[in-house]
Structure formats: C-alpha cells, structure tokens
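Per-residue structure
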Amino acid sequence: MISNVSILKNITILYAEDEEALREITLNILKGFTKKQFVAQNGAEGLELFKQNESEIDLIITDVNMPIMNGLEMIREIKRINPNIPIIVATAFSNTEYLLEAIDIGVDKYVLKPIDMKKLLQLMSQSLLYHELKDLYIDNLTHLPNRNKLKKDLEDSNKDLIAMINIDKFSTINDLFGEHNGDQVLLKFSDTLQKYFNKELFSIYRVEADKFLVISREYDLDTQEFYNLCKKFEDFIEEDPVCIDEHEIDLNITIGIAKSSDGNAYKYAQRVIAYARKKFEPILIYNDSFNIQESFEENIKWIKKIRNGVRNGNFKAYFQPIVDTKTKEVYKYEALVRYIDDDGTVVSPYTFLDIAKKAKLYPNIIKIMINEAFNLIKNKDKRVAVNISFEDIASAATMSYVYNVIENNKEYASKLEFEILESEEISDFSEVFKFIENMKKYECKIGVDDFGAGYSNFNMLVNLDIDFVKIDGSLIRGINESRNQQIIVRTIDEFAKKFGFKTVAEFVSDENIYNEVKEIGVSYSQGYYFDAPLSYSEIS
C-alpha cells in the first residue's frame, strides 16, 4: 500500500530520460498519478524546459547518464535557479561515486533501475511532504529563511544582535513598475544583502514583503562595528539604483539595530525601526532613552480616550478665521478638531490624529466635524471649511453619513466647503471626481489643502473641478526670508489663478509674512497674525 499518494494528483513533474522505451512506460504510469508532465530526452532539454516552466514544476525525476548534458549537470544548474525544488534520480549504477555527487548537489531521493514504480511513487510523495514542511521555513521568492524560521531560531537563544532592514515605500515600486519588476528588485536586494553580510558571520531572513533581518552569529560583536557595516550597506543601496531591464529604480532603506541578552532584541529592533522612520533617520541603534515604551503606553491611553471621547462629546470644532488678504475681513472659518479633556484642557490634533488614523478611529472625526460645521453655519450664518481625507472619500460608510447630513441641511449647504488633503496619497481619482461632482450639486465649494507638501501635482489641479488651493504652511512659514519659497508660492498662485482657482496661504503668523503674501497676491490668508482657532462661543 502506497501512503500519501493522493498528494501527487495536483502536481506537475519534469521527467528526463534518454532511453525511449523506459521513458514511454514510466511516463504512461506517471500520467495516471500526476496532473501534468514535461518530458525531456536529455539534460540540456530538461534544463531548458525547467527555465521555461519553473513556476509550474513541482518535482523532477531524472536519469543520470544522458547525452549532451547528463542528469547531474542538469541538476546542478537547476539548483542554482531554485535550490528547493525536490529531485529524484533514477540510475542503474549503485556505486557511491554517483550517489555522493547526487547528495552533494541536493538530490532528495534516488531509485535504482529497473524502476520499481511502487517505490518511485512512494519516494515522490515522501519528497513532496518533506519539501512542504521545508517550505514553511523558506521564503519562496528569495529562498532566504522566513519569519517562521526566525521564530524557531530565536527560541534557541536569548542573546542576539539584530539589524532590521526595511525598504521604504516598497508598495510604490510595485505600483510604478509592476509586481514582476518589484520581485526582481527584492531578489537583487537579497543578493546584495548576502554579499555585504557574510553568511558565515551573519544569518539573514526575509520576515515580511519589504523587511529583512540580519542577526550576528557572534553576540559579542561590537555594536558600533555592526552599525558601521549596516551604514556602508545603507550608503551603497541609496547611492546605486537597482537596474531591472532598462529601468533604474532608486531605493531608500531604514535600519533599526538592537542588542539584548534577555530575548528582546527582535522586539527592540521592531520598535527602533518604527521610531527611526517616524524621525526620518535612516539608521538607529535601540536605546532606552528613546522612551519608545512610554510612547506605546501613550498611544494606548489615547486610543481609549478617543473611543470614549466620541461617545461622550469630548471632540469639538474650533474655528480659525480665513481672511481676504487685501482687506483682512473674515471670509470663512476652517473647522479644526480639538479634544476637550475632562479638566477643560484643549488638546490639539497633533497629539491624537495620527493615532486615530492608525487605530481606524479617524472616520468618527469627519462625522463630528461636519455636524459642528453646520451648527456654526445655521446658528451664526458663517461660511465653514472642513478637511476631508481620501480615506474618508473612499469609505462608502463615511460618505453615506456625510451625504445624509448634507441632504438634511441642504438649504445651508452652499456655505459648506471641503478641503481635500493633498498630502495624503490619492490612489483612485475616480472616487474624488465622484465626490466633487456630488458636492457641486449642493453648491459646496471644494479645494485642495496642503498644496506644496507631499507629491504636489499641478496636473491634479487642472483635472479636478475645484474652487481654491490652500498653499501648505511649510512654504508660507518664513517666506519673507526665503527667495526660493517666494518663487514657489508665486508660481502656485499664478498657476492657480490662470485656471480660475482662488489661493489661500496658511501659517501667516506675523506682519512680515503677511506683507509678502499680500505682495504676491494670494487671495486669502489664515494664521495667528489674524486670530487663533476660536471656540463656537467666541464667534459672534
């Protein structure tokens, strides 16, 4: 009785045999047990078939003595392409010379001629089960040990010196060049990693799609020496683009290094790499002074406060005036979210907004803000602008709520404006087009916020049916002292006005900045030079 033979019914094999009669007999039997078969008459033909159909082939059965290229030569070349492919050798020679060479190049099993088909099928099923287990610990693309293997290895030692290496914004590479080219980038990155970090001194893992790990085999290696090696690798990656076909692809990486004798090195490496990315540092060594643990505790505290605050009404809108730049008369107000603590302390969004987004609590904010906006519009007859993110626009549930509120207040909707956050990546413009079209039906005005930050796209302004552009505060702050900022702001203002958009300058904090903005001709201005954000009761 052959056990586990059912595992063969869905596999594709490559069978290489030069002896025609044996090949036909064996192939006819294999057809009854396997899904698909590629057949070669010699090693060269077998190698070519493997190159053309690697993604399909699950297992190889090959003779040793064949013309043009023998079986062992073929195996050696195939193992360079995919070291994990299971291979069974069929040979009439039982001498140790062939068997030792076969084992040396990675053959799993062998069967002697004349072939006992029952034995061959048993070996095939055993080999596949072994590789199925082995694949649990090997990354399919790079053939590096994977996260499962890392966990297993970390159980064996509490003392570790680790570098976690993350390719920044790797999803953008897939979006720009396609997933096939993205995979080629990962393969070349993996090869470079293995060249820089000698496998006799370091263990290398691929733990996530764009995240790799390097562990020193010598815990006593000086951390600064390890840092220097990582820094050389980081410099090389960022100075030399990866070439895929005719494409030059620039990579940026972030590296977090941690050393621990209490089994926490991996956890610390995860924390420090997140901290490094937040601080825009390309490489950092974990240090208790970073207060990362305190940061996590603060996050947890705020997640709880946000949840309770939504239910208990702790979130309120404060309204900052936006004035006509020429006359300084208030034209409208921007609704800005604030958290009102139980003791009356007003907390700015910089403290909790990112946490709300990461914890998937952000949709509650736009719901609160649109109701707060209509409260000011209806009761005090003011024009109000509300920020809206692409995440809000792309959410069917959020937009259903927004449309419902507007429909219930449609007689006031012409005084409601939306500022689409330009600094957040927009992945589907059709959703934005639909949103703008729907809002225009209610006579709401639409603008783009934060223009000049992020990946500013002038073509986007032309294609969107917007009414105004808000110039990012990073370009306004200190504009009176920066010729470059003056040129950029003037360019944005002239471009916008040619296409019929009004412009808004935010972060106008003093008279010198105001005078520069006024001289350029920006339509509206906002900032502490005119007024701070005001509570509902402070607006007359």
Remarks:
- The CA atoms of residues 16 and 45 lie 8 Å apart.
